[in-house]
Amino acid sequence: MPSAITTDVLIVGAGVAGLWLNARLRRLGYSTVLVERASLGGEQTIKSQGIIHGGTKYALHGALTGASEAIADMPRRWREALAGNGELNLSATRLLSEAHYLWSPGTLAGNLTSFFASKAVRGRVDQVKGEQLPPALQDRAFKGKVYRLAELVIDVPSLLANLAQLAGDSLLAGERIEPLRDGEELAGLVVDGREIRAQRIVLSAGAGTADLLHALGLDQPAMQRRPLHMVLAKGPNLKPLYAHCLGGGPKPRITVTTHPAADGQWVWYLGGDIAEADGVAREPAAQIAAAQKEIASLLPWVDQSLVRWATLRVDRAEPAQSGLVRPDNAFLADQQRLLVGWPTKLALAPDFADRVLASFERDGVRATSQPDLADLPRPPLALPAWEQLLP
Ligand SMILES: Cc1cc2nc3c(=O)[nH]c(=O)nc-3n(C[C@H](O)[C@H](O)[C@H](O)COP(=O)(O)OP(=O)(O)OC[C@H]3O[C@@H](n4cnc5c(N)ncnc54)[C@H](O)[C@@H]3O)c2cc1C
C-alpha cells in the first residue's frame, strides 16, 4: 500500500483553478497535494482561448453590471504575475497578445456608436486603424471598425508548464478517489489506495466535480455543462488575430484567437456564437463548412486552399443556474472541510484562489504540516488540441 500523507490542503483537479490555487497556497507556506487523474490542464483549460477578459464584452448587453466589474481587475493581476511581480511568478508564461480586439464588420458600425460612446466603455477601448490593426485585418479590402480592449491573450500550454513548475513536488497522478472519514467527518481522501489527510479538501475538477461529489455522497453544489463545438484552422498564410467579431447580438458572432503550432505555423481557434447552439447541433463537416463560409465573408482575402481544418467538442463546467446564463465570478461553496468550486473562466483563476483563501482566513486554517512528497507519481502536461488534431 502506498504511504499515507498528511498535508494542509488536498486539491483534486489540476486545471487552471487547481494549479493556480496550489501555487498560491505553496507560496503562502501551506503544504499541498494536487491530484490529477489525466493530464495537467487537459480538459477545459488547454482547450480555452486564453483571453484574460476584463469584462468589456459583457458591456455589449447594456451597461456593465456589478458582476462584470468583479472581472475588471483580472487583466491587471495577470499582467503583474506575467511580469514576475504579482501574486505568482508567471514570467515563464508566453504572452500572445497585449490586447484583444472588438471588430465590427462594415455593416454594423452604426449600431455600435452608442455602445462605444457609453460611459461604461469610455476609456476602456480605443479605435485602431492602418498599421495598428491586427495583422490578419491589414488588407486593402478590409472594411469595418476595430477597437482595442485592454485584455491580454496568453499561451495556455506555457502557462500550464509554468504552474506545473511552481507546483514543485506536490503533484500526484491518481484516478480512484474514495472518502476517508473519522467517524462521520470527512478527514481526507483515499487516492488509489493512499490515505491523504488534510485540514481542507478542495474539489476543482471541472466537469469531473459532479461525479466526485457523488462519490462523497453529496449532490450539492449542482453543476451544469455548456457544450461547445470549436473550430481550428491551420495554414502557412494565416496571420495573428485576437478579436471578437460582432454580429449585432449580445454574443460575438465569432471569437478568433491565434496560437503558435510546433511547426511554426499559426492556428486560428474559432469560438463565439458559431461554437454554441447551432454549431453544437452540426456534425464536424457541417461545422467546418459554416466556419469556411464565415471566413470567406469576413476575411475574403484569405486563400483557404492552403488551410487545414478540424473541430473539437468540449463542455464548459459551471455551477448550475437558470437559463444557462454565463456566470461572471468564480464560484466556491464550502461545507466544513470540503470546498467545491468552478472558476467559470480561466481569467478568474485568481478570484477562485481568493475565495478559498478568504474561507481559510474565516476558519483560521493555518499552515502546519510539511510532508515529504518526493517520488509521488506525477501527471503529464496536456498537449494542445492543434498538435493532436492538426499535426
Ligand atoms: C472552448 C473553450 C474556450 C474558453 N476560452 C476561455 C477564454 O478565452 N478565457 C477564459 O477566461 N476562459 C475561457 N474558457 C473557460 C475556461 O477554460 C475554464 O473556465 C477553466 O479552464 C476551468 O478550469 P478548471 O481548472 O476549473 O477546469 P479544467 O481545466 O476542466 O480542469 C479540471 C481538471 O480536473 C481533472 N479531474 C476531473 N475529475 C477528476 C477526478 N475524479 N480526479 C482527479 N482529477 C480529476 C481533469 O482531468 C482536469 O484536468 C474557455 C472554455 C472552453 C471550453
UniProtKB/TrEMBL annotation:
<dbReference type="GO" id="GO:0005737">
    <property type="term" value="C:cytoplasm"/>
</dbReference>
<dbReference type="InterPro" id="IPR006076">
    <property type="entry name" value="FAD-dep_OxRdtase"/>
</dbReference>
<dbReference type="InterPro" id="IPR036188">
    <property type="entry name" value="FAD/NAD-bd_sf"/>
</dbReference>
<feature type="domain" description="FAD dependent oxidoreductase">
    <location>
        <begin position="8"/>
        <end position="314"/>
    </location>
</feature>
<keyword id="KW-0560">Oxidoreductase</keyword>
<dbReference type="GO" id="GO:0016491">
    <property type="term" value="F:oxidoreductase activity"/>
</dbReference>
<dbReference type="Pfam" id="PF01266">
    <property type="entry name" value="DAO"/>
</dbReference>
<protein>
    <submittedName>
        <fullName>FAD-dependent oxidoreductase</fullName>
    </submittedName>
</protein>
